[in-house]
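[Meeting: bench + compute handoff]

Bench side (C.D.) handed over the final construct sequence. Compute side (W.E.) agreed to return the predicted structure before the next meeting so the bench team could plan truncations. Sequence as handed over:
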Amino acid sequence: MIWPILLLFLQLSIAHPFHPERSTPLPVIRQLCEFPNVTWIENIAVRSNGLLLVTLFTSPSLYQIDPFQANPVPTLVASFPSALGILGIAEIEKDVFAITKGNFSRFTGLVTPKSWSVWKADFRAQENTDTGGAVVVSKIADLPEAMFLNGATTVGGGEKGGIKFLLMADSILGVVWRLNLDTLQYDPVLNVTATQPTVPVAQGGFGVNGVHTRDGFLGM
């Protein structure tokens, strides 16, 4: 199967179908690009300049896509060591993204214990000619107790109103981990029936997956 990336945008000149007299924005869908067969695109983040970052479940690769081009070509911007794939992505500073990674088999469902960690991709160096414009990749913390770090989101409270916590869904354990980005301490902040797999993992059960925060609420 070929996995397309789609872009939604508003075309302001189209009238609303139920109210022809109104000029109401309607979403228009167009295909941006296609990845090769057996590529699994897991998550998408948007940079401050509008460029898209996509993580791959099938390789430890972070790609960038320019949605403003007519026919954009995905560009590999970062690779992560000692991992079979990367999953969650969330912006923790302007143009700095936290990314979850680990070792697992999408064919057998087996997970390598103690392989999960959180890394970051720093795009600020692209403005620094001393680094040659390369994206700087570095580890934030290991989470050896985690089993499958999936979606990620952030919580404020840091210095000067910045990001203080990274929340990560663990789809096998069925919990949400909280990582303090200042102290690097972590704990399972949410472990309830709603986050647990509905059937045993051996039978394909999967717990909490995507997570998002807004106005003090956590959506799952």
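W.E. noted at the follow-up: The first strand starts at residue 4 and ends at 11. C.D. will use this when planning the next construct.
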